[in-house]
Each structure stands twice: as structure tokens, then as C-alpha cells.
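User: I'm putting together notes for a lab meeting next week and I want to include a structural view of one of the chains we've been expressing. I don't have a solved structure, so I'd like a prediction I can at least talk through. The sequence is below, exactly as it appears in our construct file.
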Amino acid sequence: MAETLELTASDGHRLGAYRAVPEGPPEGGIVVLQEIFGVNAHIRDVCDRLAAVGYTAVAPALYDRSSQRGVELAYTKDDVTTGRELRSEFAWDDTLRDVDAARSLLASDGLKVATVGFCWGGTISFLAATRLDISAAVIYYGGQILPYVDEKERCPLLMHFGARDASIPEADVNVLRSAHPNAAIHVYDADHGFNCDRRAQHSAPAAKLAWDRTLTLLRERLS
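Assistant: Thanks for the context. Below is the predicted structure for the 223-residue chain, given as C-alpha cells.
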């Protein structure tokens, strides 16, 4: 079952969210964190896939703090430009308040909570691991982590990067390895955005392997 709902952050801001619920009792809760393209079909599909394997998944509409609400973008050059402009409107602290509203909703159902984030959401997932009360954090190609690399995680980290991702060079990944030696960091023969089958950069083998590793961590930490 899937539905849209409204969350309220600690500062009173109200934002939309997409929630997918499993058929049986949930094994845990996942906050799914968007790319710069909003809570679009890809992010909803991630939530649905997580619900299909037993998790309640909530994707907060992080762009609802912008001048536009309910933003859904595709992957054209114009969409990339729009997404980057919208992303630049936010302070990380405000975004994390919205993430924590989704976390609190899941925790109120007695669930252990993890985050899974993509691109911009990957960096947010990392910050959730260092600043919020969660049980695990999965980061897909988060490219803005380095300014915060010295923040220490409070939970296990799993990171997925593409070897052909020009926006996140190998040197950056090596900095992350050094700063977070306990993190599981994997590099795939793939480009940025390899998990999304709606993008030209999609790599089915890399996406499957990363997904399998993600589900293994979630089973270990949320069950």
C-alpha cells in the first residue's frame, strides 16, 4: 500500500511525503532521500521496492521548503539546472529537520530506522548518520560529503560510488575511506546515477549488486 501524507518538522514546517507500507508487519523503517529531482517516479519506486521486501519506506518532499511544493523533475539538462537551483536554496540544518520528521514518524511505530539517499540525498544520508538517531545509513554517490568528512558516524555506513563518476573522483572516495575506516565503501564500474533505470547512466549489474548489499545491511541493523 502506498499513500501521500503530511509531516511536520520541529520548526513547524509542513511538508509532503510518500509512504509505502509492506503487506505484513514491517521489519523496519527507511527514510528514502531524494536526488535533486524531487520525490519523483524513481524515488517512489525505491520506496515501493523496499516495501515489497518488508520495510515501511517514507520519502519526505525536501523541496517543499522551496518556492515550489510537490516538485517532480525528470533528467533533462533543464531539469538538472532546475534541481541544482532548488537545492541551493537550502541549509543542511533545515533539510535534516525534515528528515528527522520522517524518522520520528517511523520510530513512533516502534521501528528501527535507516536512511537510504541518492546523490544530494546521499550527502543528507551521511549527515543523518552523524547527527540523527538512526540505525544505519546508505549513501549512493553522495558528492557533497567532504566538507563534513570529519563528522563521526553514530551508526554503520554503507557507501556506493561509480568509478566513472566524474563528479566524485577517486581521490574523494579515498578521503572518505581514510576518515571513516569502519564504513563499507564500494566502487562499481558505473557512472553517477547508476541505480536509476530512468537515466542513461543506469547500470543494471551495479544497481543489483549495490541493492543486494543495501538489503543485507538493512536486515542486519533493523531486524
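A couple of points you could mention at the meeting. The first strand starts at residue 2 and ends at 8. The chain has one domain: 2-222.

User: Perfect, that's what I needed.
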